[in-house]
């Protein structure tokens, strides 16, 4: 399971999600698949700037909910801890 944070090209919006297939989920976000008017589509959040692997779905969901409750500053610090320049991550090269 993966917890991930996406941003838009202007880096003004953050989206936190959880999935068992990060590559597929990012593809769906980039293609705006699923429900019309989704948050990620509305705000063009399709740049992966942070992800972590969780051992199971329960832990991933707990962590996702915790992160969603954080302030913007705390989320930015989390991203900066592993990706200080907020360079979009190509999941195909690192998330197998």
TrEMBL record:
Q: Where are the transmembrane segments?
A: none
UniProt-listed InterPro entries: GIY-YIG_endonuc, GIY-YIG_endonuc_sf, UPF0213_domain
Pfam families, alphabetically?
GIY-YIG
Quote the CDD domains the UniProt record gives: GIY-YIG_unchar_3
Species whose genome carries this gene: Hymenobacter gummosus
UniProt-recorded name of the protein: GIY-YIG nuclease family protein
Q: Where is the GIY-YIG domain?
A: 1-77
Return the similarity comment.
Belongs to the UPF0213 family.
């Amino acid at each position: 399971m993966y917890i991930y944070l996406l941003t838009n090209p202007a880096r003004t919006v953050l989206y936190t999600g959880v999935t068992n297939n990060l590559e597929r989920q990012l593809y769906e976000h980039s293609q705006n698949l699923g429900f019309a008017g989704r948050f990620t589509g509305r705000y063009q959040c399709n740049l992966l700037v942070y992800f972590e692997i969780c051992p199971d779905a329960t832990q991933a969901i707990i962590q996702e909910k915790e992160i969603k409750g954080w302030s913007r500053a705390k989320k930015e610090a989390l991203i900066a801890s592993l990706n200080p320049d907020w360079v979009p991550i190509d999941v195909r090269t690192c998330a197998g």
